[in-house]
Amino acid sequence: RRVGTVTGPLDMPAGVDRLAGFTKALGSAFREDLVENGDFTQLCGEAATERLLARVPDLDGLFAASDLMALGALAALRRAGRRVPEDVALIGFDDNEFATTADPPLTTMRQDFHELGQDIMIAVQAAFDRSTTADAIRHLHPEEAIFTFWDYFRKHWERNAGLRIDHLLLNGEL
Asked: From CA 76, how far away is CA 90, in angstroms rounded?
C-alpha cells in the first residue's frame, strides 16, 4: 500500500501533531518519501499532491492535514486521471461544512472543540488547584487552539484577578 500525506506547517503544533498521528497510524507501512509539507491551503494541497504523484503515480491513499488541502488534492488527482474513492482514498481534517459539497464529498476527521475546551479548563483548574496532580489531568491534544485559549485566559486572569500564570501543563509536562 502506498499511502501519502500532505502535512500542515511543521512549525505549528497542529501540523506536527497530525503528521505524528499519521505516522503512528501507518506504523511500519509509513514511508518518508510519501510525505509532502503543506500550509493548510487549497493551492498548497494541489501542488503537494502533484509532487507526490510525480514520485508515486500509483498512490493508493492520501491524508491531507486540512479539508482545504484535501480539496486541492482532489483537483490534482482528477487532473492526473485518478478517481476518488475508486483509485485513491482521500481523507481531510477539520470537518468543514464545504467538505460535504465537494464532488465527491470528502471524508474528513472532526475535531471536538467542546471536548478540547473542557480539557483546557481541566488544565486551568489544575494550575490553580495544587492538590491536583499531573496524572489527574486528562490527555490534552496540543493543538494550536489550546495555546490560543491559554493565552486568552492567562491574560484575562492577570488583568482581572491579579493572578500570574507562567505555564500550562500538557500531558504532565510543562
From this structure: 12
What is the H or E stretch that residue 47 is in? helix 42-55
Low-confidence ranges of the chain (pLDDT < 70): 111-174
Torsion, Cα of 137, 138, 140, 145 (10° steps): -80
Strand arrangement of the beta sheet that strand 61-64 belongs to: 35-36, 3-6, 61-64, 89-93, 107-109
Q: List the end-to-end C-alpha distance of the chain, in Å, as a whole number.
A: 39
Amino acid identity of residue 136, one-letter, is A
Cβ pair 7, 141 in contact under 8 A:
no
Residue with cell 493543538: 143
3 state SS of 114: helix
Q: Which residues pair with 91 in a beta bridge?
A: 63, 107
Q: What's residue 128's pLDDT? A: 54
Amino acid 58: pLDDT: 94
List of long-range contacts for 18-27, beta carbons under 8 Å, 24+ apart: 18/65, 18/93, 19/65, 22/63
